[in-house]
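ASSEMBLY PREDICTION REQUEST
Request ID: AP-0331
Submitted by: J.K., bench scientist
Number of chains: three
Total residues: 248
Priority: normal
Notes: Please return the full assembly, not individual chains.
Input sequences:
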Amino acid sequence: MGHLLQIGKQGEKIQLYDCSPEEFDKIWKEYLGISEDYAQIRSELVHLEGIETDEHFKQAMEMGKGIRILRQPAFEILISFLLSQNNNIPRIKGMIARLCEKYGAPLATGFDFPTAERLASASEDEFRALGLGYRASYLQTVARAVADGSLDLQEIAKYPTEEAMQALCQVRGIGPKVASCIVLFGMGKGDAFPLDVWVKRILQKYYPGEKDGSRFGSHAGLAQQYLFYYERYLSSEIKMGENGNGQS
DNA sequence: TCCCAGGCGATCT
DNA sequence: AGATCGCATGGG
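STATUS: Completed
Returned structure:
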């Protein structure tokens, strides 16, 4: 919150623009998950029961070896995933961009994510005018709840995963999928396992009968990310092959 | 054009 | 508990 980072890539080198080493250390190192020991986490996943013969998961891990779980502000995650429901990613990006432009503080380049207080002062109709659809009323009530303190994200972040999810699910517009994304990406709870339509398909295909990610233990969230991107990659490969040339 | 998207809430059985 | 449906909107 209040910080903006421009990232580019030159060949294999990652380039950061206008970012002092101090700002990188203080803000972005944790945000990007760089202070996490991914070698250790991946080693724990590899040593789980049954992974040795799980060719799909081993492939997913290899393909996703660069994936990091970001540590993003809980409020930003809450709003972003609240808007994500029954929606597609390009449109979600547009909706969030418009929210920032209209209600966020201007930064050197671009706009900050809006505060709960600023959003709470806007009306549902204003949100509808931004194209948020039926999610406008969810956003309005959530923003007010956070602003007036009746929804205390800092407090909920102290709960264990299950209790935190349960508390979040009391809010209108937040269900199990959105709640699990909030605790995973916004509260650092690595055992949360967001069950979206893709991951549900994966469970049916590779782990029939299983209804959650408990087989992946305390790093189920990272396992979910590996499987999610693996499955979407496979799906895009199939689509490319449908007309034989992948050009459509 | 028409289908559908990283769900949720309401309303059934 | 589990299955089904409507929802606002616009990207592809």
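REVIEWER COMMENTS: The two ends of chain A are 40 Å apart (CA to CA).
SIGN-OFF: pending second reviewer
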